[in-house]
Design brief:
Blueprint: H1 2-40, H2 48-74
Helix pairs in contact: 1-2
Length: 75
């Protein structure tokens, strides 16, 4: 019974983390869209900041998938 409660608690905490990381990813996506629009208006084809933002966004997407898997495992 104690393990069931611990698993449920872990699942709830992990679900909250999924929400937090999704919010961070949304903020990064918005930042990337703004940056992309700014780059398109200039002559700069290669924006290393934009590339870094996209890499971070992909990393957060991976983190979200892994956290969601952990939530399923804890249930």
């Amino acid at each position: 019974m104690s393990n069931d409660r611990n698993d449920a608690s872990a699942a709830a905490e992990l679900a909250a983390l999924v929400d937090a990381v999704e919010a961070c990813r949304s903020r990064l996506t918005a930042l990337a869209e703004r940056r992309n629009a700014a780059v398109r208006n200039s002559d700069d084809d290669s924006d290393s900041l934009l590339v870094s933002i996209y890499e971070a966004e992909r990393g957060l997407s991976t983190a979200i998938r892994l956290l969601q898997r952990a939530v399923r495992t804890a249930r």
